[in-house]
Specification:
42% of the residues lie in helices and 16% in strands. It is α/β, with parallel strands linked by helices and 498 residues long. The chain folds into three domains: 168 residues, Rossmann fold (3-Layer(aba) Sandwich), CATH 3.40.50.2300; 243 residues, Aldolase class I (TIM Barrel, Alpha-Beta Barrel), CATH 3.20.20.70; 46 residues, no CATH class.
């Protein structure tokens, strides 16, 4: 059989311009790698084909004529996913369509009875490697769809949902596809090549806004150490890539394990390796020796969950009082030369304008290098969504295209959605201001930080200053929102609305 696996083109540039970094989708690459031999597997990351999306998909489907096309979508990418399923069915009516990823996992029952179900043949809920492998075998006459756990399939034009399966034994998974079976290339962070890998799956934290518990439950499963090093070897030696984003939800849940991984990486003596990870503030604050080892291993950047300065908001998120821990975590990272991208969440029920200002000021006081700011998003089936629904604060129930952290889909007790949206944007400009890379960041990335400091920043200040004089803050905000609204609109796909 011939199988194409696709990830969506939609982007959410919370921190940088949408073209600043394009990462390969590790999920579809892992699923494709674990399909049994004897089938032709092709991988497409549509983030690399945003400008000519419809033309590229049409030409690729006509050229390859696959038997099965699998599409992976997060909640805010689902609208594009459905337009693509309809396009693919128009191009090749006999092709089978499979969807998976976060949104189908969360919303499979609703999708099954929706109008778009007409274009979908199968859904996989949760991890896809085993279920997809078995589905391909079933379509090849070597297995039965009725017996495949976590699979939804059609019987008499109605979806049947098989019971969920157990979490996978990660030690049995093969390395993700990164060779010529991947039809799209050019993955980058700024001007550097980048790849993505995993060292674990899941998280034991109980954050109320997180949808990962629907994928893996409240669990944590590490990959074997030998497999992690083999994955890094593949990226470093075979793909000649020095930047690696580690996609674990929270790498540092087990500090002893992190130290062991780092010591193994140091022993491999990789040169100019740059690792980017995600971590929680408490673990990074309490384990300075772990942070030191992380630095020695080449971890240069950490996405750190700072979240909020309000104790009440942190309690609602079930984060605990992490204010002091966040400060200490940043301090530890900077002591060992690690750049901190701090995550902030706005839009909790008690937020007013002063709370927004306080959060930005708090973030600035931590010394974190740059901010990853989002408005609280009521993702389907999360605990925080139900909490907000119960008190009448969800203002956008089902326009999921705006569920990417950039749009106000909620209101607070003090701010309507449009006011929250504006103040979130306005005070970022005025409190945080223009990015000023610290000395250790400049030392790590002299080229692109110099370009930013001496070329892009002065140029942008000039042009934005002119725009501000002409339109004022409100006018500039409206122009930005208009641009944002059109960012994930793809020429030729709009007429494919259901």
């Amino acid at each position: 059989m011939k199988i194409i696996l696709m990830s969506m083109p939609d982007v959410a540039p919370v921190m940088m311009h949408e073209n600043a970094f394009h990462l390969p989708n590790c999920g579809i690459a892992s699923i494709g790698a674990n399909i049994d031999a004897g089938h032709e597997i092709l991988i497409i990351d549509l983030i690399r084909k945003r400008r000519q999306l419809k033309q590229y998909v049409t030409q690729t489907i006509l050229k390859t004529r696959p038997d099965l096309v699998g599409l992976s979508a997060m909640t805010w990418q689902y609208g594009t996913c459905i337009k693509l399923t309809r396009l693919i069915k128009q191009i090749l009516p006999g092709v089978k369509i499979l969807i998976g990823g976060y949104h189908p996992t969360l919303m499979y029952e609703e999708i099954a009875v929706s109008p778009e179900a007409e274009y979908i043949d199968f859904m996989i809920r949760g991890e896809g490697e085993k279920a997809c492998r078995r589905l391909v075998n079933a379509l090849d006459g070597k297995d039965s769809v009725e017996e495949i756990a976590s699979l939804s399939y059609k019987r008499d034009h109605q979806f049947v949902h098989n019971p969920p399966g157990e979490l996978l034994d990660l030690s049995r998974l093969k390395l993700p596809i990164r060779d010529k079976r991947r039809l799209t290339w050019g993955y980058h962070i700024m001007n550097s090549k980048v790849e993505v890998m995993e060292t674990s799956r899941g998280c034991t934290r109980a954050c109320t806004y997180c949808c990962m518990q629907q994928m893996y439950g409240q669990s944590f499963r590490p990959f074997p150490l030998e497999r992690i090093i083999a994955d890094l070897d593949d990226i470093y030696y075979h793909r000649n890539t020095r930047w690696v984003f580690i996609a674990d939800d929270n790498l540092v849940l087990d500090p002893n394990r992190v130290v062991e991984i780092c010591q193994k990486i140091v022993a491999r003596n990789y040169k100019k390796l740059n690792l980017v990870i995600q971590a929680d503030s408490v673990s990074m604050a309490k384990n300075e020796e772990m942070v030191r080892n992380m630095s020695l291993a080449g971890i240069k950047t950490v996405f750190l969950g700072i979240e909020n300065v309000s104790e009440k908001s942190l309690a609602m998120a079930r984060k605990g009082n992490i204010v002091d821990a966040s400060r200490k975590a940043v301090e530890n990272c900077h002591k060992y030369g690690i750049m901190v991208i701090g995550g902030l969440i706005f839009g909790f029920p008690d937020d007013d304008e002063q709370a927004i200002i306080d959060n930005y000021q708090y973030f600035k006081s931590t010394g974190a290098d740059t901010a990853y700011c989002q408005i609280l998003t009521p993702y389907p089936k999360t605990e925080i969504r139900q909490l907000f629904l119960d008190i009448g604060l969800v203002t956008n129930i089902d326009n999921y295209k705006r569920y990417n952290g950039l749009w106000a889909n909620v209101k607070t007790k003090h701010l309507e959605s449009d006011k929250l949206q504006y103040l979130f944007w306005y005070h970022r400009q005025n409190v945080l201001g223009w990015w000023k890379p610290s000395e250790h960041i400049r030392n790590q990335s002299l080229l692109w930080t110099s370009i930013w400091i001496y070329a892009f920043r002065p140029m942008m200040k000039f042009f934005i200053g002119c725009r501000l004089k002409k339109h004022g803050w409100k006018g500039r905000y409206e122009l930005e929102m208009k641009r944002r609204a059109g960012r994930n609109v793809f020429k030729g796909l709009e007429e494919l609305n259901l």
